[in-house]
Design brief:
10 helices, about 300 residues, Alpha-Beta Plaits, alpha+beta, 4-stranded antiparallel beta sheet, globular, about 30% helix, 7-stranded mixed beta sheet, Ribosomal Protein S5, domain 2
């Protein structure tokens, strides 16, 4: 019979950028910006949630917290009673900016709960984690990247199950995130998507998505062509015109730039030939930061000393 560990457990989970231009709801890239989660079972019922960093003024501190809900789902899946625990969240992933904060909370919570069960890792595989996470977020792109790290391509089988493959990004892939003050929920952004696209538009995205795999893993010089999109970014321009305009300006100067996930953040890829464009940017309230690709996804790590 499985039991809860009595010691504190720590899990870190990366931010993610989905779509990457043409690969809508399919591609994801893990980024080296992490939420840090620590939990410990208690003898008292209920949860005590502490939050610092992103969302500390707005997120719930009870059973409605997304990490808590994900942990509860994992405990139920593992058939382990967990009447009470304390949870500390140190959040670095911006919320409502298209950088996978919800996926990080869902995957991070499930992996955290799994680590709190003495034989959780043996009983719940990463594939189980992905299927359970899919119950809370209907598309697997961010979930797969948050779970596996690196560059992932994810899809849904005919029976509704998710599957994914992970690839190592080329060492010369240098992502830059540009985060505006504007927030936008993924649910709201999805209402702006077109109900149909032309065959010509679909063909462009199919070819670019195929090229994207090659560009991110073998030849980053192909990223400008590989990140072209004809389906989802323009349709959301009304929600964040400054983001779309920034993408267009950067692409016109040869920088591969895309809307990150559902937006409004922008993701760009720089190299020696175009990094001067980034250095010369004056984008007002935008937070601009070069980040590495995270080769790891959600994982248990030692507690801080």
């Amino acid at each position: 019979m499985s039991h809860l560990r009595r010691d504190a457990v720590r899990v870190v989970v990366p931010a993610t950028s989905a779509n990457l231009g043409p690969a809508f709801d399919s591609a994801g890239l893990a980024l080296s910006v992490f939420d840090d989660l620590v939990a410990m079972a208690t003898d008292d019922e209920g949860v005590l949630v502490e939050i610092s960093g992103e969302g500390e003024a707005s997120l719930p501190r009870d059973e409605q917290h997304l990490v808590v809900r994900s942990m509860r789902a994992a405990f139920d899946w593992l058939d382990v009673a967990a009447p009470g625990f304390v949870l500390r969240c140190i959040n670095s992933i911006p919320h409502g900016r298209g950088l996978g904060s919800s996926a990080a909370a869902i995957v991070g919570g499930i992996v955290l709960a799994r680590a709190m069960v003495d034989d959780g890792r043996e009983r719940m595989t990463d594939d189980d984690v992905l299927q359970l996470a899919l119950r809370q977020e209907s598309h697997p792109d961010n979930l797969a990247a948050a779970l596996h790290g690196g560059f992932t391509v994810a899809w849904l089988e005919a029976d509704g199950r998710a599957d994914a493959v992970r690839m190592a990004a080329h060492e010369q892939v240098r992502p830059v995130v540009m985060v505006p003050s504007l927030a936008l929920s993924t649910a709201q952004a999805r209402t702006l998507l077109p109900e149909s696209v032309t065959l010509a538009e679909a063909t462009v995205n199919i070819s670019r998505s195929a090229l994207l795999v090659h560009a991110l893993t073998v030849d980053p010089t192909r990223l400008l062509a590989a990140t072209e999109d004809r389906i989802h970014q323009a349709s959301r321009a009304g929600a964040y015109p400054d983001s779309v305009a920034l993408v267009q300006r950067m692409r016109e100067t040869g920088v591969p730039a895309v809307i990150s996930g559902a937006g409004p953040s922008v993701l760009a890829f720089i190299d020696a030939s175009n990094e001067h464009v980034l250095a010369s940017m004056d984008e007002g309230d935008w937070i601009i930061r070069e980040v590495a690709v995270s080769s790891t996804g959600a994982r248990e790590v030692p507690l801080l000393a």
